[in-house]
Design a protein that fits this description.
single chain; 189 residues; three-stranded antiparallel β-sheet; 10 strands; binds zinc ion
């Protein structure tokens, strides 16, 4: 692993996201960064653990699929198909489910590539995530009818040389794309 793909310990989880105990409702919840809450009233301990998410770099021939986000966070930036892993799901099951929901097809040759931590801001709360990134192949070009309209504003199929990492939504996905492009340049399958 070289410096360019080492996770950056830059996410700030030092500010508590919650002030009240989720069990007894007392408003004097203690917080120990990065993710441990304890209630001074009922002694409940709550860990806001890392949520697992998955995404895929899907190719059609030499082109790479990127989806344009149609909602916050990162509205309008490019994203990988994927999403959060539901309770009881494997990463592979979640990935296929999300890809079917988002672009209406089942990917082929799905393989794990790399993972990076991320902070997903939603509703004023920063959720720690670990984004598991896979590679796979598309069966065909998506059509606008395939897209999950409430989440996706559009899609691009780009040659590797045309991908601008600064247009990709999250640091974790930018790093994963860099790993993918570096491997492609070195002809590593
Ligand atoms: Zn409590």
């Amino acid at each position: 692993m070289n410096d360019s793909i080492r996770p950056e310990p830059s996410h700030d989880f030092s500010t508590p996201a919650f002030s009240h105990c989720p069990r007894c409702g007392h408003g004097n919840l203690g917080f120990r960064p990065p993710n441990h809450y304890s209630c001074r009233f009922c002694n409940f301990h709550f860990y806001m653990n890392t949520a697992a998410a998955c995404g895929a770099i899907l190719t059609l021939g030499s082109r790479i699929l990127l989806l344009r986000r149609g909602k916050e966070p990162a509205l309008g930036l490019l994203d990988f198909p994927g999403g959060f892993i539901d309770p009881g799901e494997s990463a592979e099951e979640a990935l296929v489910r999300e890809i079917c929901e988002e672009i209406g097809q089942v990917p082929k040759d799905v393989r794990f590539l790399v993972s990076f931590p991320n902070k997903y801001e939603y509703g004023g709360v920063g959720y720690p995530t670990c984004d598991l990134v896979f590679t796979g192949r598309l069966c065909r070009e998506p059509t606008s009818e395939d897209l999950q309209a409430e989440e996706i504003a559009g899609w691009e199929l780009l040659e590797a040389g045309d991908i601008d990492l600064s247009t990709i939504a999250f640091p974790s996905l930018r790093k994963a794309m860099k790993v993918y492009l570096d491997r492609l340049a070195l002809n590593i399958p």
